Amino acid sequence: MRYAIISDVHANEAALRAVLQDAADAGAERIVCLGDVLGYGPEPVQALELVYRRAHVCLAGNHDDAVAGRCAVDDFTEFAAAAVARHRAALAQEAVDWLRRLPYTCEFLGDGGQAAGAFACVHGDFSDPKAFNYVLEPADALPSFRARTEPLLFAGHTHRPCVIELGADGTPVDRAVADFTLEPGRRYLVNAGSVGYPRSGVCRSSYCLYDDGTRRVSFRTLPFDLEGYRAKMQGQGLDEAPWMRARSAAQGAREVRGAARFGHPDPGARRSPVRVGGRGLLLPFAGILAACIAAGACVWCTRAALRALPDRSAVPPAVAAEPEVAAAPGPAERFSDERPLANGWRGLLEFPGYQTVRIGSGARKGVATAFHIEGARRGTVRLVKSLCLVERPPKVYWSVNLLNEVRPGKALDFAFNVRLRFLDVHGKLLDEAFASGKRSALNRWTAVPADTETAEMTVDCTCAGVYDLAVPYFKTEPERRTEAGGKKKRKDRP
Predict the structure, then answer these.
(1) What is the DSSP letter of 22?
(2) Do strands 281-282 and 275-276 pair parallel, antiparallel, or not at all (unpaired)?
(3) pTM for this one?
């Protein structure tokens, strides 16, 4: 699968259209937008509508969150804060609602579900996606590498393409911004640059292509119509950043002649009158007369038709039903603490003073990571994760496994409830699957509704003591069957 990774469009529709066309020419099969569709630029509605139609996944950027009201603009520049207010006023409520539902991270399993080709995306950094931290230096990438396990990470936010490599010794280093193939044992954080508001080098739109089959990352750049962009900004009475004006002057083509006006000052005067029958009757007047007669006939016919209609004044107008809002998967108000965990998981504690949850090594051989849950008193730890289903498969496979061995004569003080919810693009609940019990393992297939946009997995672990839970997952791979008898074959653990 070939993915186009785009970021920081910033309401520049013309640049976005050029990038999408280039991505299609390059064979991109999926478009992943890392956020900041809005902010700064003159075309918020057009850019957002285009991303909505064309991008398979769109993440939330800090400007998108500000327009949607999910974050404040206290640390924004005056120019950026003014753009937020302008874009919010230009968008319909439906657009604002969609922005509020945008996820902060997404992950992809890679070609055929192979871990070697897996990658994850975020707007800022992975350690705290909602904080929108900048990754400007190699050391800034360390929290993201610690928060995720994928070999390849994509980020935006800085508007500057870069490649940061994490070697076997755990030290991040800068690499040249050039096409490369992932090497075994190494990890990479790649910034795709900016589509509509670049801040480095010449003003060119930049984005990335990633082929998860060959594991190759390619950088693409396109000419950026800076003069056209400035004209649209000035046409709306907007200010512009100083760097934009300076680079426009530096890269502008020299004129070899002064300005000229080649258009006729009065185009209508050059139109030759057409005489009919040699009597000097001009054809335009005949057209006007015919139009007047036709208009009168239309008015007479309309009035006659209205008189023939039955009186419907007693029938009340239809009222559009409010869209259904998906119900929460449980009593979330009893959880008073929330913390980000690895691979997009969030942990919520019922009794923060008595419970902890963290990522640690597995209690069984062959399990690299697991949730280490401790409770001094019996209570519930909630684990939540959302995933955009790009492929929209007919079924997903989900698995929850407790790693602790139960010694003879000792009861298992661990129970869990698992809920898998499927939502459409408007956040409406389409279907959900639920399972509970005190079993130490749960593995099953669940059908996916056709209009699903997002799947959310919630695992409530109720226990007292110390337990290790293998990181739960739901995979979007096709169901496997044995060749003989058509029976289902047990799914291999990833």
Answers:
(1) H
(2) antiparallel
(3) 0.62
